[in-house]
Amino acid sequence: NNKIYSIAIDGPAGAGKSTIAKLVSKKLNIEYIDTGAMYRALTLKVLRNNLNPLNKNDVIQISKNTEIDFIKNHIYLDGEQVDNEIRDNIINNNVSYIAIIEEIRFNMVKLQQKMAKSKSVVMDGRDITTVVLPNADFKFFITASVEERGRRRYKEIKEKGKTDITLVQIIDEIKKRDDIDSNREISPLKIADDAFVLDTTNMTVDECVNSIISIVKGGI
Ligand code: CDP
Ligand code: CDP
């Protein structure tokens, strides 16, 4: 069966979206598109150019001379692979200001829709089920308690060897980002009416992946 289909996933930070989406894409042999990485890459460019993320006009201006691409699951900013750079905490703490700008979202959404047009994809983000792929074949809202999401992020940071940040700080940063993402005017994070909600607080990664795969396999 060669039918083109799409799996759209939204949810808050640290819920497990990208980990799960990546594994689902491998199992189904379809492409994974991490839309958060695209907003992160633009944020990296803004900060590298010493621009203020809150200065909308500057951000829009620089975005016009910016090229963001995925090649073999790696993210490229103006031809440079920036997979690691975009995960820095300074990006976490600024990306939501870039992502509230209407003009920026408009262009990102266009790019994302183009990416999903000619092939089967699993795409994750904040507005995928609602705005980017409202007609997706499968829609999931992946979530978990904010404490659990904080613990997961904290564990990742500790494993990288960073020690100057506390769990409480991480949880506060996540809450702040969730708040901006959920309350912005343009394409806020919300549960689509027809999305399947997966609360992963007490689930392993494997359980999450299997749950999604069984729903998708039942439907294609
Ligand atoms: O991985 P994590 O959940 O921490 O974040 P992400 O998915 O990489 O997204 C980073 C940020 O980009 C989010 O907090 C949103 O502000 C923004 N974003 C968005 O507005 N719309 C999307 N489709 C994806 C991300
Ligand atoms: O993309 P998103 O921000 O939603 O989350 P992620 O970066 O995929 O996941 C954050 C961390 O939670 C990763 O280290 C995952 O391995 C972990 N995780 C987990 O421990 N249990 C789950 N059921 C899902 C994710």
What do you see in this structure?
By secondary structure, the chain is of the alpha/beta class. The protein has one domain: 3-Layer(aba) Sandwich (Rossmann fold), CATH 3.40.50. The protein is built from 10 helices and 8 strands. It has helices at 17-28, 35-48, 56-63, 89-92, 95-98, 102-115, 128-132, 146-159, 167-183, 205-219; strands at residues 6-10, 31-34, 68-71, 74-77, 80-81, 121-125, 138-143, 196-199. The strands form 2 sheets. A 5-stranded parallel beta sheet has the order 2-6-1-7-8. The termini are close together. The mean pLDDT is 96. Bound molecules: cytidine-5'-diphosphate (2 copies). One cytidine-5'-diphosphate binds at residues 13, 18, 35-37, 39-40, 95-96, 99, 125-128, 177, 181.
Could you outline the blueprint of secondary structure elements for this entry?
Layout: E1 6-10, H1 17-28, E2 31-34, H2 35-48, H3 56-63, E3 68-71, E4 74-77, E5 80-81, H4 89-92, H5 95-98, H6 102-115, E6 121-125, H7 128-132, E7 138-143, H8 146-159, H9 167-183, E8 196-199, H10 205-219
Parallel strand pairs: 1-6, 1-7, 2-6, 7-8
Antiparallel strand pairs: 3-4, 4-5
The structure holds cytidine-5'-diphosphate (2 copies).
Question: What labels describe this entry?
Answer:
single chain; 220 residues; alpha/beta; Rossmann fold; 5-stranded parallel β-sheet; 3-stranded antiparallel β-sheet; 10 helices; 8 strands; 15% strand; globular; binds cytidine-5'-diphosphate; kinase
